[in-house]
Amino acid sequence: MTAEKPQTPTITEYADFLEATRASYDAIAPAYTEAFSDWPAESNPLDRSVVAAFAELARDHAPAPTADLGSGPGTITAHLHALGLPVFGVDLSPRMVALARRAHPELRFHVGSMTSLDLPDETLGGILALYSIIHVPDDHLPTTFAEFHRVLRPGAPLLLGFQSGDTEDRLHLTERFGQEIALDYHWRTPETVTGALTKAGLRLQARVLREPQDEEKRPRAFVLARKAA
Ligand SMILES: C[S@@+](CC[C@H](N)C(=O)[O-])C[C@H]1O[C@@H](n2cnc3c(N)ncnc32)[C@H](O)[C@@H]1O
């Protein structure tokens, strides 16, 4: 008799998109961490300059901390720390958080969701979210951006980074790094994202669209906004 391989639930069998995203990143956390742990050295100079500009704006609000939302392995959190920002990371995946803590024991990382932040009103000096709003479906984006607006101090900056693409062109992956997953990727243009940010009361400061380099399939978008002072 051959043992049956346990079936990974498909996305519809998870309670919701958060549970599916959490389980997927828990499954790939070690491989993802190994693949993407050298961001400062391997990232595009333009991306680094946008992050450096954000760090300079957020430093004006120190000692109020900056939150790296969807911090993954914590590499970019550590980069912000090296740029002189008081910063901590928040990630949906407990395994990602454990790996980030192990790699960066001097920094704080919490398990949590950007869709419902366990943070008091107007306490953050900045929010950075790189390649993490791509896992938030369109109908949850207004609540998420309302959360960002709620926790930011007046005048504090927000930087979002994401692959630019058509909303219709959603990607669903069932495998990555050899692991079974159930992960949705929601592509959006900078215009779609800035429209939603503006509706949440945030003020647009800059949009950067960089062409894909090397293995990248889609342009990289950065949107810098701030809460009104
Ligand atoms: C593509 S990785 C990006 C990691 C890191 N920001 C980077 O650029 O290297 C996306 C990360 O966002 C996290 N994530 C996805 N949805 C989230 C949510 N609702 N709240 C917090 N983190 C989330 C995932 O667990 C994962 O670690």
UniProtKB/TrEMBL annotation:
Pfam families: Methyltransf_25. Residues 68-155 form the Methyltransferase domain. One of its GO terms (molecular function) is methyltransferase activity. It comes from the Bacteria. InterPro entries: Methyltransf_25, SAM-dependent_MTases_sf. GO terms for biological process: methylation. Keywords: Methyltransferase, Transferase. It is an enzyme of class 2 (transferase). Its EC number is 2.1.-.-. CDD domains: AdoMet_MTases (cd02440). This is Class I SAM-dependent methyltransferase.
